[in-house]
Amino acid sequence: MIKHIVMWTLKDEAEGAGKAANAQNMKELLSALLGLIPVVRELEVGVDVFAATPACDVILYTAFDTRADLDAYQVHPEHLRVVGFVKQVVASRSVVDYEI
Prior knowledge:
Layout: E1 2-10, E2 13-14, E3 17-18, H1 19-36, E4 42-47, E5 58-64, H2 67-75, H3 77-89, E6 90-99
Antiparallel strand pairs: 1-5, 1-6, 2-3, 4-5
């Protein structure tokens, strides 16, 4: 199984909204992918509510059966639609993929 974790720090303001509103919008958009992309086995999205240091505003956890499934997810039109919004509101991004 492949695990894919992405953590984002958001801009204070982007797309006409503040960080909190954009974080919630990201959570909704990303969460919807579970039902739209068949290769996604597990998906969780969290928004930082504890003001952790170092800061990370939104985190995505996904699981896939194979590396090929992760690759298919990356180029899926629904994923790319969400990426279009995310790129507009994100200041920084960290990612890790690993296999268990």
